[in-house]
Design a protein that fits this description.
The complex is a heterodimer of chains A (113) and B (112).
Chain A (H helix, E strand, L loop, with lengths): L4 E3 L2 E4 L5 E6 L6 E7 L5 E8 L2 E5 L6 E5 L5 E5 L8 E8 L8 E2 L3 E5 L1
Parallel strand pairs in A: 2-11
Antiparallel strand pairs in A: 1-3, 3-8, 4-5, 4-9, 5-6, 7-8, 9-10, 9-11
Chain B lengths: L2 E5 L2 E5 L4 E8 L3 E9 L6 E6 L5 E4 L2 E5 L3 E6 L8 E9 L8 E2 L3 E6 L1
Parallel strand pairs in B: 2-11
Antiparallel strand pairs in B: 1-3, 3-8, 4-5, 4-9, 6-7, 7-8, 9-10, 9-11
Classes of the chains: A mainly beta (113), B mainly beta (112).
Chain lengths: 113, 112
């Protein structure tokens, strides 16, 4: 069974640019989650999508947004990039929500110059 | 607000030296407590889910236990390949939807 896949592996941008990160969940999983893991900090919850709808978002500014497609894949968009957005962005998926384990991809390393 | 605190921050063991990692939590109605392992440059790998106090789960050299306030990850006779960062996360029933709240992790190093 293929795991969660994320692309690209690495992404280098400059301040003010926009970044798009992509995620394909495990087959059969309908919920997709995005987390940020900045250096020296723990994983911080960004967004949760289920059945194509945004269900919950963490304490991040509106320039962090995303969507979920009919095939349950997802993309995360970050506008007006700032230096502190440099981090590992992790996508996870689960079979449903409410107590089900979330399975993670290996992330996209976003570096802002 | 859900909170998770892990201790110690870092732990060095000799191969075969058993020990325990601690995860203390506060949550508004526990939906589940999750343990993950994260290797450098990789995403977290799911290990266990615990749902209620008194529950225990085992996998090879790892055993996770749960009380109403904390969880322990016991590592028996560890090997160098067990070296990784171990993450604990909780999911609450009321305030957080389906999000996971993570601790900072325990970085485990097992020397041969």
């Amino acid at each position: 069974e293929a795991g969660v896949t994320q692309s690209p592996t690495h992404l280098i941008k400059t301040r003010g640019q926009q970044a798009t990160l992509r995620c394909s969940p495990i087959s059969g999983h309908t919920s997709v989650y995005w987390y940020q893991q900045a250096l020296g900090l723990g994983l911080q919850f960004l967004l949760w999508y289920d059945e194509g709808e945004e269900r919950n978002r963490g304490n991040f500014p509106p320039r962090f947004s995303g969507r979920q497609f009919p095939n349950y894949s997802s993309e995360l968009n970050v506008n007006a990039l700032e230096l502190e957005d440099s981090a590992l962005y992790l996508c996870a998926s689960s079979q449903s929500w409410g107590g089900q384990p979330q399975h993670f991809g290996d992330g996209t390393r976003l570096s802002i110059l | 607000e859900d909170q998770v605190t892990q201790s110690p921050e870092a732990l060095r063991l000799q191969e075969g030296e058993s020990s325990s990692l601690n995860c203390s939590y506060t949550v508004s109605g526990l939906r589940g407590l999750f343990w993950y392992r994260q290797d450098p440059g990789k995403g977290p790998e799911f290990l266990f889910t615990l749902y209620s106090a008194g529950e225990e789960k085992e996998k090879e050299r790892l055993k996770a236990t749960l009380t109403k306030k904390e969880s322990f990850l016991h590592i028996t006779a560890p090997k160098p390949e067990d070296s990784a960062t171990y993450l604990c996360a909780v999911q609450g029933q009321e305030t957080s939807g389906s999000r996971l709240t993570f601790g900072e992790g325990t970085q485990l190093t097992v020397n041969p």
